[in-house]
Amino acid sequence: MGIKKSKIVIFTILFAVILSPALVSAEKLNYEQILKSIDKLSSFKDTDFSAVMTMISEDPENGMDKKVVQQFRRDKDDKFLMLIEKPDVQKGQGYLRIGDNLWFYDPESRKFSHTSMKENFSNTDAKHSDFGRSSLAEDYTVTGHTEGKLGKYDVYILNLKAKNNEVTYPYMKIWITKKLYLVLKASDYSLTRRLLRTSYFPRYAKVGNRYTPSVMIFVDNLVKGKKTQISIKDISIDKLPDSVFTKSYVERVNR
Amino acid sequence: MKNTIKIAFRNIRRQKKRSFLLGGAIAFGILIITVLNGFTGGLADNIKDNFSAIFGGQIFISGSEITDTGRVVSVIRNEKIISESIKPVLDKIKSAHKHSRAFAEAIFGSRTARQRIDGIDWQKEKGFAESLPIVKGSLKNLSNPQALILPVSTADRLGIEVGESLLVRLSTITGQKNVGDFILIATVRDQESMGISTAYTSLNYLNNLLGMKGGEFQVFNIYLNNMEDMDSVGNVIYAGLKRRAITEERLNTTPVVTTKESGSKTAEIDRERNMHRSFASLMGSSFFSEKNIEPWEGTKYSLITLNDMMGEVTTMVRILNTIGLIIFILLLVITMVGVTNSFRMTILERTREIGTMRAIGMQRNNVRNIFLLEAFFTSLGGAIAGLLAAGVVMLIVSRIPLGATSFMWFFLKRGKMTFSVLPLNVLVNLVILSLLSLLAAWNPARKASKLEPAQALRTEY
């Protein structure tokens, strides 16, 4: 009987030792898979994307600012164009992304200048990178996870760490719905692990078989009272002319 | 000769109105050219001083590495190559500093301010710390790694007092977002430089926030004993760097003149890229990812001097001075036509007098010299008056405060215009003036000396 018992214990230990990494790996794979699903769900790789964005920024020092921006995206080529339509003083300013390059066009000087995806979009709290395709799986690994509730939604809460030192936010925490893997909230942390920005995505619009946030709120956690709300309307996935994603187009629309 | 001079002076005094008008015209020309020379000289000096204050030195060595993803980052991890390269010119170097630099956003409550922050090795640069113009607070807490010294204008904008804590948001050299906690230990007077003032903190703490290790830095700043040595010392150090490591071509920041349209465009793009790189490296920021960059191994060094950056300013000053000189010469030519006519009139008026002088034994040369000296003294008097008037104008203008927010801030010193007149310029102007005066008076004077005494005495006007 004693031998039998010890055999069971040994087998149990062996079973645990052999299978536990596989279980852990399977679990890890699931979360990595979730990141891939998020990227897939919010990226438009087989169609183009266009929309009109209304951005309302609140800044305790500069007051309130409203912008209307026309957005054109072609995720499969990592291209986008953001054209500012309002206010009138900024009308015609554009941000053109082609691959790794991002240019800012100033209609007054009629010149393009290089800028970075890591910079904020035109004094708002949104980064240029917030307007391109999602690349969570490429940029981050999951370092921790819990489950919880955000409002009425059951969510996974994932802690992310950047895979390399060139990703804008070295650490992130995201709240994802269990059902569709929609990101409802994201916290961005600095290298010193201080909370820099919290993003909320309270509303999504279904476009074809994809989901895109129709409302985004970016809160600056370092500057009290500073935030930007972006509402997105007139969403379309119709094919856009190739010429839209060119410098000459940006210049032409300003004539 | 004494009598000749006496007579020349007497003649000037005799025709006060005419002398005054001629001298006045000359004085006006001298006034214009001197003020213009002074203005351009002051402009160049101020820009040079302001550049020196902004960037902290006169010669700057920066280093860059290229990452696997093609991003160029600004960092020097080992100073050995620089130390060896500066050895031959050590006697000409007043001081050298290793700095890291970040363009950051200082945050205090809901207020923010863009601020350039320099990381300083306080242990090694005690002299630099002592030279800071402290307004409030003290440097006794410099050993605190989080100690921050802010320019007064930034502290006022943030509404922060010495002893309070603030946050600084910046990007690491590879572009990641980072935040540091700081304590304001002192405020310093703003530097008069393009409205850009520098804040200071510990080199190691800033390096940490920038994602760099202790001992690493971004820019090696060199102050020279004599600014005149800038080019020669720069050349020696650059040659040393080139022998020991990969180097960036010396930056050509002077205007490019090309005849072909396409060539001009390419040259212009190169020039803009060079300018962008030079400023970016000095500011300590990494360049944006650029396409078509040839990858390299290790650290690539680049060297830039204030004179390299001043190329366009020097050209502008030269053009302004040339325009000024042309205007001056035109003014003088007009004045000299007046001088020639006046002297012709004078000779007509004084024909009998000349006849008398010749009759009592005065030589032809002396008669000619009287007129030449008269022209010379009139010009000299006008020149002295012009110089004095220029001095007064420059003194008054240099007292007018043009304001800290003036767009001309970069060209000013402490918000005011300054003038720097080179003695050589004054001398050249005086020589030109004297020669033209003598030339203008030469013909009438020669004619006067050739008058026959008997005929001159018979003449009646």
Keywords:
heterodimer, A: 255 residues, outer membrane lipoprotein receptor (LolB), chain A, 3 helices, 20% helix, 45% strand, B: 461 residues, alpha+beta, six-stranded mixed barrel, 14 helices, 12 strands
Sequence of secondary-structure elements of chain A: HEEEEEEHEEEEEEEH
Question: How large is the count of helical segments of chain A?
Answer: 3
How far apart the termini of chain B lie comes to 29 Å
Number of continuous helical runs of chain B: 14
Secondary structure topology:
The complex is a heterodimer of chains A (255) and B (461).
Chain A: H1 2-42, E1 49-59, E2 63-74, E3 79-86, E4 94-98, E5 101-106, E6 111-115, H2 136-139, E7 140-150, E8 153-162, E9 171-177, E10 183-189, E11 195-207, E12 210-220, E13 227-236, H3 247-252
Chain B: H1 2-14, H2 16-55, E1 59-66, E2 72-74, H3 80-86, E3 93-108, E4 111-120, H4 126-131, E5 134-137, E6 147-151, H5 152-158, E7 165-171, E8 177-188, E9 198-202, H6 203-210, E10 219-224, H7 230-244, E11 246-247, H8 261-283, E12 300-305, H9 306-309, H10 311-349, H11 351-359, H12 364-399, H13 423-449, H14 453-458
Parallel strand pairs in B: 4-9, 6-8, 11-12
Antiparallel strand pairs in B: 1-2, 1-10, 1-12, 3-4, 3-7, 3-10, 5-8, 6-9, 7-8
Helix pairs in contact in B: 1-12, 2-10, 2-12, 2-13, 3-7, 10-11, 10-13, 12-13
How would you characterize this protein structure?
The complex is a heterodimer of chains A (255) and B (461). By secondary structure, chain A is α+β, with helices and mostly antiparallel strands. Chain A has one domain: Lipoprotein localisation LolA/LolB/LppX (outer membrane lipoprotein receptor (LolB), chain A). Helix content of chain A is 20%, strand content 45%. Chain A is built from three helices and 13 strands; from the N terminus they run αββββββαβββββββα. A 13-stranded antiparallel β-sheet of chain A has the order 6-5-4-3-2-1-13-12-11-10-9-8-7. In chain A, 31% of the residues are buried. Chain B is α+β, with helices and mostly antiparallel strands and 461 residues long. Chain B has two domains: 197 residues, no CATH class; 252 residues, no CATH class. In chain B, strands 3-4-9-6-8-7 form a six-stranded mixed barrel. In chain B, helix 2 runs antiparallel to helix 13. The longest helix of chain B has 40 residues. Chain B starts with a helix and ends with a helix. Chains A and B meet through loops of A and strand 7 and strand 8 of B.
